[in-house]
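Hey, can you fold this one?
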Amino acid sequence: MGQKRAGRLMRGMEIEGATKGRFKTATTKRDIEARPAPDLVKRDFSASGLDELWVADITYVPTRAGRLYLAIMLDVWSRRIVGWAIATHMRTELVEAALAMALARRRPEGRVVHHSDQGSQYTSLAFGERCRESGIAQSMGSAGDAYDNAMCESFFATLECELIWKRSFRTASEARREIFGFIEGFYNTRRLHSALGYESPASYERDHAA
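Sure. Predicted structure:
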């Protein structure tokens, strides 16, 4: 289909293309004294079933009242956001809260590989201990390389393009409410993914988990 026809059809259906803003804030702060986990993924973002591989990262959410930070954990097999948390800080408690949600929701029976960057939140002793207690194997990509955590980067690009850069959040509560609606009411349940045969993560899990 040609570009002009696509534009005409979109105008008729009152659909607008979304573009991503250019502003980017670094959220990865390494602890040079911490020892990172080995890279168990090596850019092979594939899984044969539920709760084999979770990828995790943090992004920045601007509001008029100040900065917020969103930590997420994504199941590679179904592309579902299984855990997430929002806070005004990037301390270890932020990623621990996202992990707690993922564990409470999924209750994985086998070993889960948790892949992240080398941010100080993920290399902290407290987070490492929480993973060991839960039977989770930590994995970390190389420092400063977005391709080592490409799936999280892809989700954040979608979130920024389709929500964050289209809105101006007045308060932290408004941002939390809108992000909750995007993740739980749209992305996990209704947004179609080409990698899933144009199903949503929730419907893909229902159809294929067996």
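The two ends are 37 Å apart (CA to CA). Let me know if you want another pass with a different chain boundary.
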